[in-house]
Design a protein that fits this description.
THDP-binding; alpha/beta; ODO-1/KGD_C; five-stranded parallel β-sheet; 31 helices; thiamine pyrophosphate binding; Rossmann fold; 27 strands; about 1000 residues; thiamine pyrophosphate; nucleus; eight-stranded mixed β-sheet
Length: about 1000
């Protein structure tokens, strides 16, 4: 009651005693803190106070009255004792009864204290010099010495008294009573040995009871001799692998696993137990420490492939852009020898941003579950490995945990394994975190935490078994904290004695875990010394043979390190299926059908909001007139892909309605709570599913999740939308480390789409720019070289770039670029402003598309398209030329203004007002990167006598100018300049003053149409 009574506060109006204290209108949560003292001002609830409270309750009051009315044993023959004697007898009887109640309550409280805080005194540190919880203080309610019995009102004479055990413990086994001495011994065995269990903060009684049974039941942690021999063999492989690397490449950084070699048998135990429960696919993520060992002995990557990565002569072309070997991933299908079942293991590539891979792994696991129909996570699961400092310090860990039970993001339980070095790079944990344990972040989702001494392999294996069973039983996250040490420095070249002299003096004296465990098994007679030495020699020979084989120059190829292959997407020769860029237009019947569904409510008796009704009526009018706005253009893209069997998933903050109330893909019944309708899922009889889901208020975690989701299937359109484009700032790590360079580093296939609302509309510096300059700066095309391609220039250019940046200005072009995302024979990122599209070419079938989507253009009357713009035979326009009077008389044109996105409509309006439609041509670049050299050259040649201007609404040091200027000069062979028109350089993306914003806009608009503005400049 004291631990969880606050959960029922305000639910009981007339509940006396405990209920009055813990379940009233005052919330008291005192049992969860790690300390054992109550907050200042709160009195301890002692057994005496409990008895006092019980006597005020009717049923207990009757119990005490009966005691008072009865005579104690030996006095039954005395029929009429004197009043004084009777008072003494009754008082003595009452005191005896009260003592019995108090003592039993004290023992029950003692048991609970061990369950709650026993982990604080568990023997977790293999070095014996630090405390895993950063505190050597022993909670006063744990019986570590006899004198502490007084805390409970007990003394040494009570140790041999038997006490009734509560139903919330399993320490008695079949016994319901035990002597206090045995109770304490069993509690110390369960909670204060080499395993420390944190679970009493979980609010589910059944889950707590399940954990108690796993750790309290007498004799439950037993291993057969065969299991011990398997454990020893795995420990040999883990240890000898590191020893081999150290001998062969003593001067190379490898981030070895020395000090936590037990990680390998731990992971294999988790996989074995999960495989036996039905899991046949495991997606894993980890930092670099121990990665090569995991690849070799868990994933079972060929050793020669690993060893060849140490070759200093390895060409960059063979290893992508040259990412280090301890960042690479792997995908492998094999037989699990312990269960004789097929299993697929995937270790995701990860940069030095240690925890960045966490949401990526979760997204990939969720995608595999989705496409396999694994709605409970019984076939596919994820395992995440962490370092202690990163687990406590990096915010993406928290963001990922908070996705764990959201309906559209849950993977139905992840097993987290923390390699707890008890140190960061050189930073002592006492100055690296504020929480007692590095794993405390997991408490926010009620994940049980199992701390274990990594130098006790059998304790580690047992914890791993329980963790796998927990995940299989409850489909919830669980954390294993492997309290270990780092035998060498941060890497093998580092000197740790500079900063941790005492720790590393102890580490140098520390006996290796393999030596300790092998000696133990030899002493037990489980193996002989000869058998142990033969097993060591056997693995050493395997390593030597692989080392010899690794010298074959033909053996290395980056494709061997691919962590997410798409085998059905390529030809037998490994090339994409086709290199033709198909038209992306649609038939009139398809457009009409999608439009009518988008403007209706498919369900009967479904009452929608009047405002939504007006929006749907507006859509219906557009469809009737064969027109579309931005929302309808998006509907056309999604709906047509669903018809072709392409799964579409749109995720992000408030995406169901849309930040600007334009989308409304999920309709809500105004009279029935939680009743919703998704019209997109009612388009076709046998269509693919459409998933649209509001996310948590996270960018880093959710974008990483969707990136992982997109890795699983090339024939799916996966989109993430930021609430405002500049919010991608907090997800920059995913963009920089995984998206822009993922293919070059890891041959990673992906086709995610980013929708980033962008536009300078007087909303201030926080809600204006999606920072297109950042994406353009990472584009790899050469600004000084005019590309010469044979065949299809457009497709070849897309194939050779690392991504595509597009800024669409019409709904039709937005629809085309989304459809092109799927129809291209490869996958690259795409970025759009209004749709600034960024394609990432992934040697697969989906570009990474970053779309800088519009805000004001969502409802702009001129930003509409005709159904004819989406007719069959039409396709995405990389550049939209001027189609007015200027194009009919190009020789009369004095100025050609190139622009992109929303500013076009302001320029077109200004040109019309100034009556310059014959003198000024306005050309829109829809695709910014890769730069459409061929189309820009055509326009420059067409208006050969005109001066060229680049106009943008962003500040000069932002936006597109620095990217497009050198490319324009390459197009015209430096024969004429490209003038800049726009806002002056600034530090902030936009002004926060509306008047200043309008003045800036007027100033650069006037400049854009002042035909003499540049004539006197020094060229």
């Amino acid at each position: 009651m004291s631990a969880r009574g606050y959960k029922t506060a305000c639910e009981y109006q007339n509940f006396d005693s405990f209920g009055t204290i813990y379940c009233g209108c005052l919330h008291i949560c005192i049992m969860a803190p790690h300390g054992n003292e109550l907050p200042e001002g709160l009195k301890r609830v002692t057994p005496t106070l409990v008895v006092s409270m019980l006597r005020t309750e009717v049923s207990w009051d009757g119990f005490f009255r009966n005691i008072q009315a009865s005579s104690p044993s030996g006095e039954a023959g005395e029929t009429r004792p004197s009043t004084l004697l009777q008072g003494r007898v009754l008082s003595h009887s009452l005191d005896m009864a009260q003592k019995v109640v108090e003592d039993h309550l004290a023992v029950h409280t003692l048991i609970r204290a061990y369950q709650i805080r026993g982990h604080h005194v568990a023997q977790l540190d293999p070095l014996g010099i630090l405390e895993a919880d950063l505190d050597s203080f022993v909670p006063s309610d744990l019986i570590t010495t006899i004198d502490k019995l007084g805390f409970y009102g007990l003394d040494e004479s009570d140790l041999d008294r038997s006490f009734q055990l509560p139903s919330t413990t399993f320490i008695g086994g079949q016994d319901t009573t035990l002597p206090l001495r045995e109770i304490i011994r069993r509690l110390e065995t369960s909670y204060c040995g080499h395993i420390g269990v944190e679970f009493m903060f979980i609010n589910n009684v059944d889950q707590c009871q399940w954990i108690r049974q796993k750790f309290e039941s007498p004799g439950i942690m037993q291993f057969t001799n065969a299991e011990k021999r398997t454990l020893l063999a795995r420990l040999i492989r883990s240890t000898r692998f590191e020893d081999f690397l150290a001998r062969k490449w003593s001067s190379e950084k490898r981030f070895g696993l020395e000090g936590c070699e037990v990680l390998i048998p731990a992971l294999k135990t988790i996989i074995d137990k999960s495989s036996a429960a039905g899991i046949d696919s495991v997606i894993m993520g980890m930092p670099h420490r121990g990665r090569l060992n995991v690849l070799a002995n868990v994933i079972r990557k060929d050793l020669d492939q690993i060893f060849c990565q140490f070759d200093p002569k390895l060409e960059a072309a063979d290893e992508g852009s040259g990412d280090v070997k301890y960042h690479l991933g792997m995908y492998h299908e094999r037989i699990n020898r312990e269960t004789d079942k097929d299993i697929t293991l995937s270790l995701m590539a990860n940069p030095s941003h240690l925890e960045a891979v966490d949401p990526v792994v979760q997204g990939k696991a969720k995608a595999e579950q989705f496409y396999r129909g694994d709605t409970q996570g019984k076939k596919v699961m994820s395992i995440l490995m962490h370092g202690d400092a990163a687990f406590a310090g990096q915010g993406v860990v928290y963001e990922t945990f908070h996705l764990s039970e959201l309906p559209s993001y849950t993977t139905h339980g992840t097993i987290h394994v923390v390699v707890n070095n008890q140190i960061g790079f050189t930073t002592d944990p006492r100055v690296a975190r504020s929480s007692p344990y590095p794993t405390d972040v997991a408490r926010v989702v009620n994940a049980p935490i199992f701390h274990v001494n990594a130098d006790d392999p059998e304790a580690v294996m047992y914890v791993c078994r329980v963790a796998a069973e927990w995940r299989s039983t409850f489909n919830k996250d669980v954390v294993i904290d492997l309290v270990s040490y780092r035998r060498f420095g941060h890497n093998e070249m580092d000197e740790p004695m500079f900063t941790q002299p005492l720790m590393y003096k102890q580490i140098r004296r520390q006996e290796h875990v393999l030596k300790k465990y092998s000696d133990k098994l030899i002493a037990e007679g489980v193996v002989t010394l000869q058998e142990f030495e033969e097993e060591v020699a056997k693995y050493d020979k395997i390593c030597e043979e692989a080392y010899t084989s690794s010298k074959d120059e033909k053996i290395s190829h980056i494709r061997h390190w691919l962590d997410s292959p798409w085998p059905d997407f390529f030809t037998a020769e490994g090339e994409p299926r086709s290199m033709s860029c198909l038209p992306t237009g649609l038939g009139e019947d398809v457009l009409q059908h999608i439009g009518q569904t988008a403007s209706s409510v498919p369900l009967q008796d479904f009452k929608i909001h009047p405002g939504v009704s007006r929006i749907l009526r507006g859509r219906a009018d557009l469809v009737k007139n064969r027109q579309m706005d931005w929302a309808l253009g998006e509907y056309m893209a999604f709906g047509s892909l669903l018809k072709d069997g392409i799964h579409v998933r749109l995720s992000g903050q408030d995406v169901e309605r849309g930040t600007f109330s334009h989308r409304h893909h999920v309709l809500h019944d105004q009279e029935v709570d939680k009743r919703v309708c998704v019209p997109m899922n009612h388009l076709w009889e046998n269509q693919a599913p459409y998933t649209v889901c509001n996310s948590s208020l996270s960018e880093y975690g959710v974008l990483g999740f969707e990136l992982g989701f997109a890795m699983s299937n090339p024939n799916a359109l996966i989109l993430w939308e930021a609430q405002f484009g500049d919010f991608h700032n907090t997800a920059q790590c995913i963009i920089d480390q995984f998206i822009s360079s993922g293919q070059a580093k890891w041959v990673r296939n992906n086709g995610i789409v980013l929708l980033l609302p962008h536009g300078m509309e007087g909303m201030g510096p926080e809600h204006s720019s999606a920072r297109p300059e950042r994406f353009l700066q990472m584009s790899k095309d050469d600004p000084d070289h005019f590309p010469e391609f044979s065949g299809d220039f457009e497709v070849q250019q897309l194939y050779d770039c690392n991504w595509i940046v597009v800024n669409c200005s019409t709904p039709a072009n937005y629809c085309h670029v989304l459809r092109r995302q799927i129809l291209l024979p490869f996958r690259k990122p795409v970025k759009c402003n209004i749709i600034l599209t960024v394609f990432y070419l992934w040697f697969a079938s989906l570009e990474f598309l970053i779309i800088f989507t519009p805000k004001s253009l969502l409802r702009h009357p001129d930003a509409r398209s005709s159904f004819d713009d989406l007719a069959k035979g039409t396709k995405f326009k990389r550049l939209i030329p001027d189609e007015g009077h200027a194009s009919q008389s190009p020789g009369q044109v004095k100025r050609v203004i190139f622009c992109t996105g929303k500013v076009y409509y302001e320029l077109a309006k200004g040109r019309k007002q100034k009556n310059l439609e014959r003198n000024v041509a306005i050309i829109r670049l829809e695709q910014i990167s890769p730069f459409p050299f061929d189309l820009v050259r055509e326009e420059a040649d067409k208006y050969a006598n005109a001066e060229l201007v680049w106009c943008q609404e962003e500040h000069k040091n932002m936006g597109y100018y620095d990217y497009v200027r050198p490319r324009f000069l390459t197009v015209v062979a430096n024969k004429k300049p490209i003038w800049y028109v726009g806002r002056d350089p600034a530090a902030a993306p936009a002004t926060g003053n509306k008047s200043t914003h309008l003045n800036e806009l007027k100033r650069f608009m006037d400049t854009a149409f002042n035909l003499s503005a540049f004539q006197e400049r020094d060229l």
